[in-house]
Amino acid sequence: MTVRTLASATLFALALAGRALAVEAGAETPAVPTVAEETQQVDDRQVKVWAKRALSMNVKSKDEADVQSRELWYSAFDGKAWGAWSKHGIIFAREAPIAWEPTEGHWRIYIRTIKVSGLANPEPGPATVPAGEFIIDRSAPTVAIGFPGSQAKLRGGGKYTIKWEATDLHLKAAPVTLRWSRDGKGVYETIAADLPNSGTYEWTVPKDMTNAGQLQILVADKAGNVGSAESSQVLVDSISPRGRVTAPAISARSEAAYSTEIADAGPAGLSAAKLWISGDDGVTWAEGPAVTAPWKTVGWKAPADGRYRLAIVAADQAGNISATPKGKGEDQFQVIIDTTAPVITLASPVGIVEADKASSTRRAFKPGDRVAVNFGIKDVNLQANSASVYLQTDAAKPWIELGKGLPVDAAFRFAITDAHASRSARIKVTALDAAGNLGETVSTDGFQVDTEVDAGTVEIK
């Protein structure tokens, strides 16, 4: 009896090991790679792990003609100890295959053969050697992606750490496969396969841009079950944003608002921008104030008058950042800060001299005299033809415009008229620089314009 039991067990084991599981009718082939089954180390033995729903066992004995029927006995392991043996409710005829649909768990089985004569193997007990041992696991591993999540925005060509968590009682030794779909429509390329369940993987993102990418993580157990998780609508942007300052080219105030043009040609969209400043013509650069949405202007206060180079460093939501300025560049903007008005000086204390003389002490004039206003103007950004000359006949009266849009480097000549009659006339000269600063000077002394002669009173004696 003992010999026949072992023989039956051997035949059963061979049949069970070589027989493929019939998948439930109507089941679709999963869109995941085929996974080979692996065994589970249990104490000192390797136990097969299957996802099978039905087991079919064909048992043949040497004296098969004398066999009347067979019984299937099974016992479950709860993680600590084996349970009692249970008998299948069906007695299987000699030529009928033994069929069983076990639930998930760790099982051992025993086949009891009953001969026509009534002789039979003993019912199994605690010391019975099983005909087979296996684990049924139909549950796919649980998988969750920590990073990147759905709708994440990644920098094309950048390195990121993919993070995940996967759990299962019977994970394969290297169960993880990472896949990437650029269009998110199920066409995948493998990032890496046969990875350990470490929970992290350093990934260099492809440079092909998309806003519909999908990262998929597949995790397989030893039964061939595959769990998966996907992060959808992952955006990849490989283009750095660009920006520049556009105006003003010169400012009369140290603190001003500057117009900017900042754009991101990729799909991620802008996230930040900053103004960078060089006060030494590109030799050194310093980070300045932030530009905020809608990215049209930025305020900045210059520390002193002078010429500055301005540049924009912008970042998009995928992490692409435009280059930090170095030296001089065509994409840089130059601005002049000039808060100082032109300095104007008059050659004569009264503001005028005879037109044909360079200097004079004359202080009284008459209609018809041609005179000249000799002046000098100093300014590093002086605007051409910005001089104006005015005359005031009385401190209580308004200034009379004698000329405007005049050259800044030539004397202004005019003829005195009756309208200029005054006991104390003054001259004023103004000029503009390119920043809009207005400089002016007024003659320190007045001059007289006589329009009549008092004949006086004649007394004859």
Offer a few descriptive terms.
single chain, 461 residues, mainly beta, Immunoglobulin-like, 4 domains, seven-stranded mixed sheet, six-stranded mixed sheet, 1 helix, 36 strands, disordered N terminus
List the helices and strands and how they pair.
Blueprint: H1 2-18, E1 39-42, E2 45-50, E3 55-57, E4 67-77, E5 86-87, E6 92-93, E7 98-100, E8 105-115, E9 132-136, E10 142-147, E11 153-155, E12 159-167, E13 171-181, E14 189-195, E15 200-204, E16 210-221, E17 226-237, E18 242-247, E19 250-251, E20 255-263, E21 270-278, E22 286-291, E23 297-301, E24 306-316, E25 333-337, E26 343-346, E27 353-354, E28 364-365, E29 370-373, E30 375-378, E31 387-392, E32 400-406, E33 412-415, E34 422-432, E35 438-442, E36 447-449
Parallel strand pairs: 2-9, 11-17, 19-25, 28-36
Antiparallel strand pairs: 1-2, 3-7, 4-5, 4-6, 4-8, 8-9, 10-12, 12-15, 13-14, 13-16, 16-17, 18-20, 20-23, 21-22, 21-24, 24-25, 26-30, 27-29, 29-33, 31-32, 31-34, 34-35, 34-36
Give an overview of the whole structure.
The chain is built from 1 helix and 36 strands. The protein is mainly beta and 461 residues long. Strands 1, 2, 4, 5, 6, 8 and 9 form a 7-stranded mixed β-sheet that branches. Strands 28, 31, 32, 34, 35 and 36 form a 6-stranded mixed β-sheet that branches. The radius of gyration is 50 Å and the shape is rod-shaped. Helices cover 4% and strands 47% of the residues. The model is unreliable at 1-30 (pLDDT under 50). It has one helix at residues 2-18, and strands spanning 39-42, 45-50, 55-57, 67-77, 86-87, 92-93, 98-100, 105-115, 132-136, 142-147, 153-155, 159-167, 171-181, 189-195, 200-204, 210-221, 226-237, 242-247, 250-251, 255-263, 270-278, 286-291, 297-301, 306-316, 333-337, 343-346, 353-354, 364-365, 370-373, 375-378, 387-392, 400-406, 412-415, 422-432, 438-442, 447-449.
